[in-house]
Amino acid sequence: MAINKWWRHDPSERYWLEITNREDIGTNLLAPQANDRGEEYWSYALVREVRPGDLVLHWDKNHGPGMVGYSHARGEAVASTITWQSRGTYGRQRSASGPEPAWEAPLGGYRRLRRPVTQARLREIEPTIRALRDHLTEAVAGPLYFPFALSDTRPLRAAQGYLTKLPRALVEELVELRELRQTAVSEPNEPEAHGLPPASLPRSRRSTGYGRQRDAKRRQAVERHAMDLVLSHYRSLGYEVEDVGDHSPWDITARKNETEVHIEVKGSTTTRDAVDLTEGEVRHAEGIPTCLIVIDQIELGNDLRCHGGRWRSWNDWAPAREELVATAYRYPLPGGGREGRPSA
Hints:
344 residues; 7-stranded mixed β-sheet; ph1033 like fold; Trna Endonuclease, Chain: A, domain 1; alpha+beta; 2 domains
């Protein structure tokens, strides 16, 4: 069936909501290729539209109900099989099927939300959700695959389906999903740098990006402030410290007696629930014990002077590969490129 890919022009529209009662949440997205009537069904067909690096929130019917965690897509959907029992009225009239064709998309890095987004919480902001839905309805021609059913006779509830499209504006409206937003961005603090098509929803006033300052001088001031705080702290503990960030995949080496500590430092003016890592930083931490120190909520003045900051540290830090989410790629250029400027 033809899916209305209204999000296709907006790379920040990379969120989905799985609505399920399965116990192995975060393993994969798995849906039959046809419904009980042998017809393609939009909520199953959406599994084919999930792309690597997309973020999938999980609505747990058994515990909540509500959004309990999220995963990231690790690959394209492929043909698979499923043994299932439809939960709808028609499906309850038949027994569980044998293996039948399905669409399966692999997921990884499942993380439980620190604060689940319950159905009760969403009902508290139902007018806002309704307004976001109405705005999108005006901007988009065709089905939205909206994750929640809204009516004048019943309170908000999850949509009748398996996989739905979760609009970016709704993710940005919920403070509980800050970690999810920060994990998703490919250019921190610059999600709209290249402009968005008219069909896209406006950014929430609460959303401020999270990381890298657009101004290089301001970014350098924040990074220098965080580094100086860490260097000063370890000196006060009797360590000899060295700033090695210009030539090593970690930032600071601290030595005391026979002990050597490698330290990775991240600084930010905003509250951080996710940080950017290079491949070199990851590989180093995988092989050598490293301390990760994040100093966020740094105050930055117009004169580029920084003050304060909230400290958090992780000793013996080693990032798990399955929890890393790709936000950028390095692409080897193929042969055959035409030299010179392109013709009109």
